[in-house]
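The step that takes the researchers longest sounds almost clerical: writing a folded protein down as plain text. The outcome of that step, for a single protein, is printed below.
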Amino acid sequence: MLCESYIVSVKFCYVLLLLVACARGQASPASLDAGFDKPLKTAVVDLGPSPYYKPSRKVRKKLSCFYYSKFAVKEYDEGQKGAEWLSIVSSSSAPCALAHRADEKVIESQEWSGYFWGAKDNYAIFGAPDGTDGGLPFVVFDVNKGRRICEDSSILDYYEKALHLTDTFRISSGSEHAPRLTYFRVVRAQCNLKQKPAECWNKVRQEFGIPQTDIPVCSGYERADWDSAVAYHASVLLVEPLTISSIDGPVSCWPTD
C-alpha cells in the first residue's frame, strides 16, 4: 500500500542548516508551482492566542480551510511543530469550523502530524513537520477511498539548493485518470557508500532499480562508518498497487541521521 521511505540531514555542522530548511519547510511545494490544483477558495479562522506561547510572541491558533470542486481540506494549527489535526471533508461547501462532520475524515497527529501541501484531482498530499536523513516525508490520501495510499520522502530544500537541482517535486496528470508524482526520492541505503562503495552501490541499484552505474560521491561524512542516504529521481502513478520507478537524473548521497 505504501510507497515507503522516511528520510533528513547530516551531522554536526550540517544540522543547523537542515533545521532551518525544515523550519521554512518545504512545507508547501504548492507555492513552488509543483502542479497542484489551485483551491477554488481558502479561508483562515483566527481562534485566539496559542496556549503554548507567551502573549508577547503573538502566536495564534488558526484553522485553515482549502476548498476544491468535490472536497475541502482543513488544517488546525496551534503554532507547534505540526498541525494539531488535519481533515478531508467530502463537500466543497462545508463551513470552515472546528466541529467535525459525519463525512469528515479526521487525521489526528498520532496518524500524521504535518501540514497540507496541496491537492490534485481527488488526491490530497500532506508533508511532515520535520525532515529525516535529508528528505521530508509525505503522504498521499485518496479522497474517494478516505485513506492514505502512499508514503515516501522527497529531498529537502537544503539539498535541492546545495546540489543545484530543479523541479524536485511535481505532480501532474497521469494515465488511468490518476496523477503522477515525479520527485527526488530519499531512501536509506542500509549500507555505507563511503566505506564499501562498489558493494553498497550494487545493493542500492538492485533494490531501487537505479540505472546509473557510476558510483555517486557522498558528501558530509565526518566519520567513515555512517550508513548512507541516497537521493534519486523517481516517478510513481497514484494507482494501486503502486510501483515506484527510477528515472534519469542525478544521484546523490550523504550520511543518515
Notes: The chain has one domain: 12-255. Residues 110 and 131 are 17 Å apart (CA to CA). The first strand starts at residue 41 and ends at 49. Residues 4-27 have pLDDT under 50 and may be disordered.
